[in-house]
Write a structure and sequence with these properties.
Chain C: This is Carbohydrate ABC transporter membrane protein 2 (CUT1 family). The complex is a heterotrimer of chains A (296), B (391) and C (294). Chain B has 391 residues and is α+β, with helices and mostly antiparallel strands. Chain B contains 9 helices and 23 strands. In chain B, the strands form 5 sheets. In chain B, strands 6-7-8-3-9-10 form a 6-stranded mixed beta sheet, sandwiched between helices. Chain B has a 6-stranded antiparallel beta sheet with strand order 13-12-11-15-21-22. A 5-stranded antiparallel beta sheet of chain B has the order 16-20-17-18-19, with no helix packed on it. Classes of the chains: A mainly alpha (296), B alpha+beta (391), C mainly alpha (294).
Chain lengths: 296, 391, 294
């Protein structure tokens, strides 16, 4: 009896040794900071002055009356609404098309996945040049069809669309590969059974077999893409810096400015926590719906 | 109920000939089994019949109508897959309704959401539900209608797969090794149910299996395939008693038939170092006897075969397996000690038998199957040589 | 004279052509659409490299050609690598990425093994914390960590650049899944044979985990090479600037030498892209690993 207990004890000791480094780091990097951010959000701490005081929920109240915040939230939501459908449907269609073409699959995967591996900050510069209002290649292309030049990054009405275009470009390959992986898990047998049942029209096959079986993957892609939409930062920092006239000031960029340019740390902390809440909601949606889905 | 004709079906994949010209005529209402070892092409043949594959050459006719290149749904055929292939995200009721929805509703009425409200859909749905319920009742699965396949046992899933096929009132019913995923006990039960289903429905069944017991017990006729060729088609009893060649004889019958090399001279035959008072009229040379384990009768322990001209051969046993109702005796004839022979001996009343190590066996010449040097069966049976002495 | 008929095996070229023959019109159209889309995906890279070979006035030439009319590639790239401290920037990025990766692996693998195979008190709490932390992005914890670094005067150091990423809760989660799948029976057999726990980890588990480690390595390296946000916050001097961060210097007023701008963009993107082309399978598996979350 005690030999087993001794072994269990030594296993326990070993385990503590093994998790010690990670635990220490998690404490320093996640736990303490989160607590600090929470506490800080109730203060008016700014880096420049050592003196600060607790102001309760004032930061949070300020958020909802601050026009900059509301503007940033609105921009981010509009951006997400433009980004999400395209970032979902296009890769899905591509995956369906590529799955059938075995010979070209490798080269097509390379072409579409290339933007995913590239450095977005660097490629943003390229897109900035392509989208240049005066000399950009995109406008050259449009004018060859007779359409007028578009001020992609300099016009308030269009800038979010332009940013969404860049983001869609960079994420198509990623979502496409996820959908491809999901498609390969669908047993061919089901399509054969469907063919026997009379469902050989492509729409029937899609709605009766492909789409239901793709459920978990589709949910995942939707949630991940939504979270990524809210995390927009790099292209804004490089190309527009929130302009023109705050039209592209998205949530994380505002939080960055508040925290690291204006040094309103307390307020920025509140913004960060609210952001975390949004992310949690998305993650919650994922776990809730993932359980209800297909079991087989 | 439909008639199926296959004419010279050929199919190859990646340069391998899977089917080398198969022709079979399946009668209306017949239960035909396609049997053979793995790789013999039986599943491919079934898929060609179903329309999931297209043959390289040859013709398929259903009720005299050529369907060789037509899609599955145009052939009025239903298929039960080995792993049932039920739609995991649909209930049992929805699974069974699928074929009817596909058949009776036009495309716009089948689309999700919007299709539900189309008048065609609303008219057709009650009929569909009714039919599904009727078939479910027939298979005794009405209590499972709202469950999903993931919540069912293997046997229940099988019935749902059968139901989904039956609901279409097909002319031909195809089954691809439907019992192989079930445990032994369930297998026997479902075997009986399928046979009863066939009898009750009168549909034409084409049944693929690698298990010859299934094929023999369930079928009207059995088609034995080997490496893409059709060895023989016939009633089970016929394949057993009248095999066309060594391969058929070897495949049918459990435990496996015994093969004994013999030499034939004009007035006698020789097995190893023993003379046999038998001759083959007009033929001499090397032959192979096929002798079933149940056709070897240990003298004194089994009733002698009812024949006037029994051959007596000495047998030495090496291993005895007691199966309760019978013994499976392994050994060899004294005349041919290198060749393994199996003997089946029924026990009376399950009483233990004490077999000596060596004993005589009695064999009726009528039980001997004769194969020439190419493995082909020759129709004649060995004739007893009345005069002359057993060596 | 007898004529001998040769049935020749089709040449490899004709077999290849045969295999890509479209089966129908819609098939051909679809393939065409896919490749047009592929061209759109790749065009920015083509444009970037093409421009990096051009002198400034030609980059925005309305009469666009891929092959530069005047080739100044050598000058542009030499300028990038030597006139500007790009080699330094790349070096910094490499140091940071590798440092992060090593610490991540060294802390995550043992922790993951403990969670997967050992029983100890507090394992549930620990694992729960790991799961919860996965959803926490850098943007939320950046402020306190920044302030902390300021207080200990460690801003603008390699340590500061690596610190928030040193533990990857995602790696812990991923490796735990992987280790859990490793058969207990093999471990028990090793224990019976007298292996110590450490030996079991080093000699049995680790070699088996190489695919997962490789895929995670790709994921980590790419993510941190491309990171802009955190270096933007903690890097103060050009001495510590990373390759990706250096893109910020072109943000408002474009460098007057456009060709050189895109040469530097190309230099920064090159390592990841080239690695991708060589290790394609590994990349795709590694980057889509973010897909395999709880």
């Amino acid at each position: 009896m005690s030999a087993a207990r001794a072994r269990a004890a030594s296993q326990g000791r070993l385990a503590y040794m093994l998790v010690a480094p990670a635990t220490l780091l998690i404490l320093l990097i996640y736990i303490l900071p989160i607590i600090t951010v929470l506490v800080m959000s109730f203060t008016d701490y700014t880096l420049v002055s050592d003196y600060f005081e607790f102001i309760g929920f004032e930061n949070y109240a300020k958020m909802f009356t601050d026009s900059a915040f509301l503007n940033a939230l609105e921009n981010t939501v509009i951006y997400a609404v433009i980004f999400l459908p395209a970032a979902f449907i296009i890769p899905l269609v591509l995956a369906l098309m590529i799955q059938k073409r075995k010979q070209f699959r490798s080269i097509l995967e390379v072409l579409y996945f290339l933007p995913v591996t590239s450095t977005l900050a660097a490629m943003s510069l390229v897109w900035g040049a392509l989208m240049d209002g005066n000399q950009g290649a995109l406008n050259e292309l449009l004018s060859s069809f007779g359409a007028g030049p578009v001020n992609w990054l300099g016009s308030e009405g269009v800038v979010l669309i332009s940013l969404a275009l860049v983001a869609i470009w960079s994420v198509i390959g990623f979502n496409m590969v996820l959908f491809l992986a999901g498609l390969t898990t669908i047993p061919t047998r089901l399509y054969e059974a469907a063919a026997m049942d009379g469902a050989d029209h492509p729409l029937d096959r899609f709605f009766r077999v492909t789409w239901p079986m793709l459920g978990p993957t589709a949910l995942f892609v939707a949630v991940i893409s939504s979270i990524n939409a809210f995390k927009l930062f790099d292209t804004v920092a490089i190309l527009t810096q929130g302009g023109p006239d705050h039209a592209s000031e998205v949530y994380l960029y505002l939080a960055y400015l508040e925290g690291f340019e204006y040094f309103n740390m307390g307020y920025a902390a509140a913004l960060s926590l609210f952001f975390l809440l949004i992310i949690f909601v998305f993650a919650l949606i994922q776990t809730m719906f993932a359980d209800n889905k297909v079991q087989y | 109920m439909a008639r199926l004709q296959l004419k010279s079906i050929r199919k190859s994949f990646d340069g391998n000939d899977i089917l080398k010209g198969i022709s079979i005529d399946v009668k209306d209402g017949e239960f035909l089994s396609l049997v053979g070892e793995s790789g013999c092409g039986k599943s491919t043949l079934l898929r060609i019949i179903s329309g999931l594959e297209v043959p390289d050459s040859g013709e398929i006719l259903i009720d005299d109508r050529p369907v060789t290149r037509e899609a599955p749904k145009a052939r009025n055929i239903a298929m039960v897959f080995q792993d049932y292939a039920l739609y995991p995200h649909m209930t049992v009721a929805e699974n069974m309704a699928m074929p009817l929805i596909m058949a009776r509703l036009p495309l716009h009425a089948r689309l999700p959401l919007a299709g539900r409200f189309s008048p065609a859909a609303r008219r057709a749905r009650p009929d569909i539900s009714e039919k599904v319920r009727a078939v479910a009742a027939q298979l005794r699965i009405e209590h499972l209608m709202e469950r999903r396949p993931g919540q069912l046992s293997g046997g229940q899933r099988q019935r749902v797969a059968l139901g989904r096929a039956l609901v279409r009132d097909p002319g031909i019913f195809l089954m691809d090794e439907p019992l192989s995923n079930l445990d032994a006990k369930l297998r026997v039960e479902v075997r009986k149910e399928i046979t009863e289903l066939h009898a009750a429905s009168g549909l034409t069944f084409v049944y693929v299996t690698h298990d010859q017991t299934e094929a023999m017990t369930m079928s009207d006729r059995v088609a034995l395939l080997q490496k893409g060729t059709l060895l023989q088609v016939g009633a089970p009893g016929q394949l057993y008693a009248d095999p066309a060649n060594i391969e058929v004889a070897r495949f049918i019958g459990s435990p496996e038939i015994n093969f004994l090399p013999v030499e034939a001279a004009s007035d006698m035959m020789r097995l190893g170092n023993q003379h046999l008072p038998l001759r083959l009229s007009g033929r001499t040379g090397g032959f192979t006897f096929g002798l079933r384990p149940e056709a070897i009768h240990p003298a004194g322990f089994a009733a002698a075969p009812a024949s006037a001209d029994t051959i007596r051969l000495s047998f030495r046993r090496t291993l005895v397996e007691d199966l309760g109702h019978e013994l499976l005796i392994h050994g060899a004839f004294a005349a041919l000690p290198e060749t393994d022979v199996r003997v089946r001996l029924q026990k009376s009343h399950g009483r233990p038998l004490d077999l000596p190590e060596s004993f005589d066996t009695l064999i009726a010449p009528e039980d001997l199957l004769v194969f020439d040097e190419f493995g082909k069966r020759i129709q004649q049976k060995p004739l007893p040589v009345r005069q002359g002495v057993v060596a | 004279m007898s004529t001998v008929v040769h049935t020749q095996k089709p040449s490899r070229l004709s077999a290849l052509l045969q295999s890509v023959r479209p089966r129908s019109l819609s098939d051909a159209v679809g393939t065409l659409v896919l490749f047009i889309g592929g061209w759109i995906m790749v065009f920015p890279f083509v444009w970037m490299i093409s421009s990096s070979f051009k002198p400034t006035y030609e980059v925005y030439d309305p009469d666009f050609t891929i092959i530069p009319k005047t080739f100044v590639g050598f000058e542009n790239y030499a300028g990038v690598l030597f006139d500007q401290p790009y080699l330094r920037f790349m070096f910094n990025s490499a140091v940071v990425c590798l440092g992060i990766l090593i610490v991540q692996l060294v802390t995550a693998i043992p922790a993951a093994y403990a969670l997967a195979k050992l029983r100890f008190r507090g394992s549930t709490i620990f694992f729960g914390t790991v799961i919860a932390s996965i959803t926490i992005p850098i943007n939320v914890i950046s402020i306190p960590i920044y302030i902390g670094l300021v207080q200990i005067r460690m801003l603008d150091t390699y340590f500061a650049m690596m610190f928030p990423f040193l533990v990857s809760v995602f790696a812990i989660f991923l490796f735990r899944q992987f280790f859990k799948a490793y058969p207990d029976s093999i471990i028990d057999a090793a224990r019976v044979d007298g292996f110590s726990e450490i030996e079991i980890i080093l000699r049995l588990i680790l070699p088996a985990a190489v695919p997962a480690i490789a895929a995670f390595t790709v994921f980590s390296l790419v993510a941190h090479w491309n990171d802009l946000y955190w270096p933007l916050i903690v890097v103060q001097s050009q001495d510590k600037m990373t390759a990706t961060l250096s893109m910020m210097q072109y943000q408002s007023d474009f460098d007057t030498d456009y060709g050189r701008t895109f040469a530097s963009a190309a230099v920064v993107s090159a390592p990841m892209v080239i690695a991708f082309l060589f290790f394609r399978r590994l990349f795709i598996r590694g980057i889509t690993m973010t897909g395999i979350k709880g």
